[in-house]
Write a structure and sequence with these properties.
Radius of gyration of chain A: 21 Å
Strand content of chain A: 5-15%
CATH class of the largest domain in chain A: Alpha Beta
Radius of gyration of chain B: 21 Å
Shape of chain A: globular
Number of helices of chain B: 6
Helix content of chain A: 40-55%
CATH topology of the largest domain in chain B: Alpha-Beta Plaits
CATH architecture of the largest domain in chain B: 2-Layer Sandwich
CATH superfamily of the largest domain in chain A: Type I PLP-dependent aspartate aminotransferase-like (Major domain)
Structural class of chain A: alpha/beta
CATH architecture of the largest domain in chain A: 3-Layer(aba) Sandwich
Number of strands of chain A: 12
Largest interface: A-B, 28 and 15 residues
Order of helices and strands of chain A: HHEHHEHEHEHEHEEEHHHEHEEEH
CATH class of the largest domain in chain B: Alpha Beta
Number of domains of chain A: 2
Helix content of chain B: 25-40%
Number of helices of chain A: 13
CATH topology of the largest domain in chain A: Aspartate Aminotransferase, domain 2
Largest sheet of chain A: 7 strands, mixed
Structural class of chain B: alpha+beta
Strand order of the largest sheet of chain B: 2-3-1-4
Order of helices and strands of chain B: HHHHEHEEHEEE
Oligomer: heterodimer
Bound molecules: pyridoxal-5'-phosphate
Chain lengths: ~375, ~160
């Protein structure tokens, strides 16, 4: 009865783990991929006000003009790239929808899309659902989880259409420097590819400034830039994000969007306008706090003997657990059962994530400290 | 230094090792910076915020607004400093608007506070009038919310 395409998608490793945790008491979770902050009050207040004023209708398929203006302004001032708010920016229900739209807009049956792993769990299924074939590129700590042009070039075939990049990265916290991205850009030009660049963690970049792929020389017209509000403004439940690209690509994405989603919720759009206009200070306070937790958790993980690179962005540490000779699944399951600490096994983010676990530091310092103490007990030989 | 102070402002008991880990500043330097801030009076003191009502201890607080006539040479300073000496007085501020000084006064009972104001403050030569507002309930103090805190209602595991 069920379509083959859907059957082919493996069950979610995250879901399986979630079900194990559900019903357990006293679990400390480092498994959460979203901020522990509640959306800043001014943003919530602006939304409440919009409801009071009666903003409860559909908006244009594109999203509110005011919001697209603010997005264009923000991208221009952050990265120096100009997108026309008229036909180059599409407001979506989160980056999640934008990923799906991007895949569907560019994929012909059998087209190959290169996905750099370990990566966010949606990319591969979205490629499959769009009728394409995901092709994995594995990264590891030897390059700080940065993809190299050679690795991409290795996978390029006739049918290769696009590359998905996500820096700062979920789950590794890796970023790419300008020169790393430029090297990738050369391959992209040479083989005439599109880059889907998911930059939802751009604001959560520590020790330095985020490099937007579209801002590289010649890349704007080859990039589908995806970003949103979930992570930077602690707005995961609002379901709001955007895509920016050429009028041709955005026009194609709009076509799919208008018949599947119609538009993003107006209340969320109202809140997003406020976030861009007046949310910067609140956002920076959150980023500073993540930065402190980041240093704390990395130091502690390494002290436990779990080798962990310093993540330069997002809010995840991705330590290796190879020293324990356990698989990621085994480690995470045992840790949960014995010490009631939830982490996400690295293999759910791609095969090359096995041997690692993802520890989110988007949780209070007290919880992080307690979790690490429990992990220490877990790792101390018994007897 | 600013970062260290910001961290300590929210948690006076935090360890030097933890501040060092979070900021990447070596422990010895953190220690030195704190000592310096203490010596310079930038860190004024370490305090604990206590909800006495929850403990079961009854205190009565009142905001007392005073109209005073300033002195020719010292303005409001002399009278404000004089009032600040009373241990019942928690804070003294010069404010704009209808009245001049705003006090926070603490006592055991309403009578205590009322008599203190009537006997010690009102008779002072420069005080023209007093108006006492008893505090009935504290919702937020020093940036700390006293009722149930808002927490993110996240699921335990998300991608
Ligand atoms: C890399 C990445 N992209 C996209 C998303 C989804 O974002 P949104 O809430 O905007 O749909 C997430 C959320 O975890 C993510 O980690």
């Amino acid at each position: 009865m069920i379509a083959e395409k859907v059957q082919r998608i493996p069950p979610s490793g995250i879901r399986k783990f979630f079900e194990m945790v559900t019903g357990m008491d006293d679990v400390i979770s480092l498994g959460v991929g979203e901020p522990d902050f509640v959306t800043p009050w001014p943003v919530r207040e602006a939304c409440i006000y919009s409801l009071e004023k009666g903003y409860t209708s559909y908006t244009s398929n594109w999203g509110l003009q005011e919001l697209r203006d603010e997005i264009a302004h923000a991208v221009a001032s952050d990265y120096g790239i100009a997108y026309s708010p008229e036909d180059q920016i599409l407001v979506t229900t989160g980056v999640s929808e934008a990923i799906d739209l991007a895949m569907r807009a560019i994929t012909n049956p059998g087209d190959e899309i290169i996905v750099v792993e370990p990566c966010y769990v949606s990319y591969n299924p979205c490629v499959t659902l769009a009728g394409g074939k995901p092709v994995s590129v594995a990264t590891d700590p030897s390059t700080h989880f940065r993809v190299t042009p050679e690795q991409i070039e290795d996978k390029i075939k006739e049918k290769t259409k696009a590359v998905v990049l996500n820096y700062p990265n979920n789950p590794t916290g890796a970023i790419m420097k300008k020169k790393d991205l430029e090297a990738v850009a050369d391959v992209v030009v040479e083989h005439d590819l599109i880059v889907i660049s998911d930059e939802v963690y751009d604001k959560l970049t520590y020790d330095g400034k985020h490099m937007c792929f579209a801002s590289l020389n010649g890349m704007q017209d080859r990039t589908i830039l995806l970003n949103g509000f979930s992570k930077s403004y602690a707005m995961t439940g609002w379901r709001i994000g955007y895509a920016a690209s050429t009028p041709e690509i955005i026009g194609a994405m709009l076509k799919v969007h208008q018949y599947t989603m119609l538009c993003a919720p107006i209340t969320a759009q109202m809140a997003a306008i406020e976030a861009l206009r007046n949310g910067r200070e609140d956002m920076l306070v959150m980023v500073r706090e993540y930065d402190r937790r980041r240093k704390l958790i990395v130091k502690a993980l390494n002290a436990l003997g779990l080798d962990c690179l310093e993540p330069k962005g997002a809010f995840y540490a991705f330590p290796s657990i190879k020293s324990t000779s356990m698989s990621s699944d085994e480690f995470a399951e045992k840790l949960l059962k014995e010490q009631k600490v939830a982490v996400v096994p690295g293999n759910v983010f791609g095969a090359c994530g096995d041997g690692f676990i993802r520890c989110s530091y988007a949780t209070s310092r007290d919880a992080i400290k307690e979790a690490l103490e429990r992990m220490e007990t877990f790792l101390t030989p018994k007897g | 230094m600013k970062e260290i102070l910001e961290i300590m402002e929210n948690d006076a008991r935090i360890g030097i090792d933890e501040i060092a880990a979070m900021t990447g500043i070596p422990e010895s330097q953190v220690k030195k910076a704190i000592k310096e801030a203490e010596e310079k009076g930038i860190i004024r003191k370490y305090k604990t915020v206590i909800d006495w009502e929850k403990f079961g201890e009854e205190y009565v607080y009142a905001i007392v607004e005073l109209k005073v006539s300033p002195e020719r040479s010292t303005g409001y300073d002399a009278i404000a400093k004089r009032i600040a000496k009373f241990p019942e007085v928690i804070s003294v501020r010069l404010v704009s608007g209808d009245h001049d000084l705003s006090l926070l006064v603490k006592g055991r009972t309403m009578k205590d506070v009322a008599f203190f104001v009537a006997e010690k403050v009102a008779p002072l030569e420069r005080v023209q009038s007093t108006e006492t507002h008893f505090i009935l309930k504290t919702y937020k103090q020093d940036g700390d919310i006293f009722y149930e805190k808002e927490e993110s209602k996240r699921l335990a595991i998300t991608p």
